[in-house]
Amino acid sequence: MNDPLIPPQKPPKDIRELPARHRYEQIKRALDLKWRRRDPMADRMMRETVDALWDAFSKDPWTWCGMWTLQLDGNGLLPGPGRDEAPVARPLDGLVAECFKAKDSKLGEDGGSPAIAVPVMDLNGRPWAVFVARAATPFNEVDARWIEQVVKAFRPIKRPDTLQPLKSAAPVPYRPRGGAPG
Q: Are 59 and 77 in contact (CB under 8 A)?
């Protein structure tokens, strides 16, 4: 009903003005439409996922987001697309290791900031990558469920064995303590 004392609400013009749930809905819808028209390619889809989520949540409240792929030997992670810092290879530990082991989203801390880690699964239900976001404020289960819906599009894609570290970053190979340089 139209109340003459209450001015009508204008719809937001920018996705960043929407509540988080609506932002996630728009991101998922836009990515689904984009991916429906193209052959699924993991590298491109990872980059588009990170870009879309970063554009919607960057700096308010997110401080970083990116994808990590499991090294073929399973001992560490290679950087995939990331925003707001150049990622380097890292050991499989902490929140990301819990996410891989449980094959489920995890809320906690990564790099000293509130974080969320969401696994990217292959056709057989095995994680081959993880989406990680850090924020100034803690994430919640709503964030986890929506990000899971976004990365669910990766399921029909076979685990890519050819993923390479970002060319713009100079990744440092992970070596366990006391291990010989490779």
A: no
